[in-house]
Amino acid sequence: MKVRFAPINVPLKRRIQTVAVLQWIFSFLLLGQFCCGLFLLLILSNFWFLGVLYLLWLYLDWETPCAGGRRSQWVKNWTVWNYFREYFPIQLIKTSDLDPKHNYLLGFHPHGVLVAGAFGNFCTGPSFKNLFPGLTPYLHIMPIWFGCPFFREYVMSAGMVSASKESVSYVLNNAEGGHASVIVIGGAEESLNAHPGSLTLNILKRKGFIKMALKHGAHLVPVFSFGENELFKQVANPRGSRLRTIQEKLQKIMGFALPLFHARGIFQYSFGLIPFRQPIHTVVGSPILVKRNPNPTNEEVEQLHALYLQELSKLFEEHKGKYGIPEDKTLIFE
C-alpha cells in the first residue's frame, strides 16, 4: 500500500485540530481502561487509602449519572473542543424553534462509529444554547461507562448522563421544562452499519424512547447528522458474515459493539484511527407534539412510532440534497 504523507507546510491551526481529535479518540477508546488501571495501581500502592476514599465517594455518588449528572461549564468550554469541532467541521442546523417551557426527547441518527456529531453539538461549545436558548441538552450514553473510576467524572462534566430509564425519566420529569434528552436511537448495534454511504438505521424495534416521550409528555424531535458515517471506513461485515456474527454476539455479551474501523494517521492519510476531515451537519427537525400519557397502549406507541419515522424521513429528504446525498438515496429502516 502506498502511503500518502501529509505535507510539511500544513498550517499550525490544522495541526492543533488534529491533536484535539487525537485526544478525543484516546478518551473515547482508551481513557476508561486507563482510569480503571490507574485506580487499581492506586489501591495496590502506598496510597491505597485514597482508593478507599474514592470507593466511598463512588458509593455515595452512584446515582448521580441517573439524576442529571454533574456538568462543568469549565470543561464544556475548553478551547480544545473548538479545535475539535473545526477539524471536521461540525455544524448544528436549526429548522424550528423549541419552546423552553417544554421538555424534549431528541432522537439522534445515525450512530456512526463514535458519535462525533452528538458529542460536538450537545456536549461542548455554545451552538445548542445559542440556537435553542433556555434548553439544556443531556446526552445519554451506556450506563457501563459510569462504573469506570475517574472516567465517570470526566464524561459527566461534559454533560453526559446514563441512558437508563431512570436517567431519561429524571431529565424529562422537570416540571418547569427546559430539558432536552438526546438519545442515539440506533445504539451500539447501529455502529456496525456505519460504512461510508450507509443509510441503514436500527429503529423498527426500538420503541422505548416513544414510551418515555408519552409517559412524560416530552415532545419528540428527530435529528439527522449528515456526514456521521463518512468519518471512518469499516472492515466489510455484511449481515450473515462470520465477522458480523462474532460482532453481534460480543455486543450482546458486553453491551457495546466492536466495529473494526480505520481512517487516517497523524502525519499521513493512508491508515490510522484519526477520522477523515469530513463535514458533519447535524440537522434538528421540528418537534412532534406529544400529550402526556402515563400508561400508553401498544397501539398508541405504534402510532407515535410510525409518525416519528415519517417525520424523520421527511427531515432527511428535505435536507439530503444540501449535504451531498444523491436524490435516489433513501433511508433504510431495520
From TrEMBL:
It is a multi-pass membrane protein. The gene is MOGAT1. Its main location: endoplasmic reticulum. InterPro entries: DAGAT (IPR007130). Pathway: Glycerolipid metabolism; triacylglycerol biosynthesis; Lipid metabolism. Its EC number is 2.3.1.-. It comes from Coturnix japonica (Japanese quail). One of its GO terms (molecular function) is diacylglycerol O-acyltransferase activity. Belongs to the diacylglycerol acyltransferase family. PANTHER family: 2-ACYLGLYCEROL O-ACYLTRANSFERASE 1, DIACYLGLYCEROL O-ACYLTRANSFERASE. One of its GO terms (cellular component) is endoplasmic reticulum membrane. CDD domains: LPLAT_MGAT-like. This is Acyltransferase. GO terms for biological process: diacylglycerol biosynthetic process; glycerol metabolic process; triglyceride biosynthetic process. It is found in: Endoplasmic reticulum membrane. It catalyses: a 2-acylglycerol + an acyl-CoA = a 1,2-diacyl-sn-glycerol + CoA; a 1-acylglycerol + an acyl-CoA = a 1,3-diacylglycerol + CoA; a 2-acylglycerol + an acyl-CoA = a 1,2-diacylglycerol + CoA; a 2-acylglycerol + an acyl-CoA = a 2,3-diacyl-sn-glycerol + CoA. It comes from the Eukaryota. Keywords: Acyltransferase, Endoplasmic reticulum, Glycerol metabolism, Glycoprotein, Lipid biosynthesis, Lipid metabolism, Membrane, Transferase, Transmembrane, Transmembrane helix. The chain crosses the membrane at residues 21-41.
